[in-house]
UniProtKB/TrEMBL annotation:
<dbReference type="InterPro" id="IPR011438">
    <property type="entry name" value="DUF1541"/>
</dbReference>
<feature type="domain" description="DUF1541">
    <location>
        <begin position="137"/>
        <end position="187"/>
    </location>
</feature>
<feature type="domain" description="DUF1541">
    <location>
        <begin position="73"/>
        <end position="124"/>
    </location>
</feature>
<protein>
    <submittedName>
        <fullName>DUF1541 domain-containing protein</fullName>
    </submittedName>
</protein>
<feature type="region of interest" description="Disordered">
    <location>
        <begin position="26"/>
        <end position="53"/>
    </location>
</feature>
<dbReference type="Pfam" id="PF07563">
    <property type="entry name" value="DUF1541"/>
</dbReference>
<feature type="compositionally biased region" description="Basic and acidic residues">
    <location>
        <begin position="44"/>
        <end position="53"/>
    </location>
</feature>
<feature type="signal peptide">
    <location>
        <begin position="1"/>
        <end position="26"/>
    </location>
</feature>
<keyword id="KW-0732">Signal</keyword>
<feature type="compositionally biased region" description="Basic and acidic residues">
    <location>
        <begin position="27"/>
        <end position="36"/>
    </location>
</feature>
Length: 195
């Protein structure tokens, strides 16, 4: 029992140290992207789900680890998505890969403000009342994820779906900011960075 508490204290201390010294989190970068869009009027080791955390919380516990992804854990990748400033053309490392469906959604934040259009990505397990089958565009569901403020509890409309796998990636933006456990990227948004 004493070892268990010592482990928790050590882990908590490490988290405090890293959060004080680290760069922007994926949540902060996502928040900046959403704020910018609203202002402009534009639309290694395999980790289990309960081990992957970032400032926006843990990944859902019922995720299935991908068995044969194109980019296994530890793969060096180049990112071609532009979900946030400095992401496109950045290089990173895959830290987790899961088999699920990713959804592009539109929603009105619970904190007020303009509708967020075409947000990429929330996954199947982050939507309330989702069944086992992928959902069709146009369906409305409540978001259980809190990637950015005002997201959790908002009603989302499914815009499109991308059937897995989905990737969690650590990367450094093209502007030099470190991002840990970025959720989510789909396979078409990354390529091998190894030559």
């Amino acid at each position: 029992m004493t070892k268990h508490w010592a482990w928790k204290i050590a882990l908590f201390s490490l988290v405090l140290l890293l959060s004080a010294c680290g760069g922007k989190t994926a949540e902060q970068m996502d928040r900046e992207k959403t704020d910018n869009e609203a202002a402009s009027g534009e639309e290694v080791e395999t980790k289990d789900a309960d081990e992957i955390k970032d400032s926006s919380g843990s990944v859902p516990l019922n995720l299935k680890i991908a068995e044969n992804p194109a980019f296994p854990v530890g793969s060096k990748v180049k990112i071609y998505a532009d979900h946030m400033e400095g992401m496109k053309e950045a290089e990173g490392v895959v830290v987790a890969v899961y088999d699920t469906t990713a959804y592009e959604i539109s929603y009105r934040p619970t904190t007020g403000g303009e509708e967020v259009k075409h947000y990429k990505w929330v996954i199947h397990e982050e939507l309330d009342a989702s069944s086992g089958a992928p959902m069709e565009p146009g369906r409305e569901l409540v978001i259980n994820a809190d990637h950015i403020p005002g997201m959790k509890g908002a009603t989302a409309t499914i815009e499109s779906a991308d059937e897995g796998p989905v990737y969690i990636v650590d990367f450094t933006t093209t502007t030099g900011e470190e991002v840990k456990n970025y959720k989510w990227l789909v396979e078409s948004e990354i390529a091998s960075a190894e030559e």
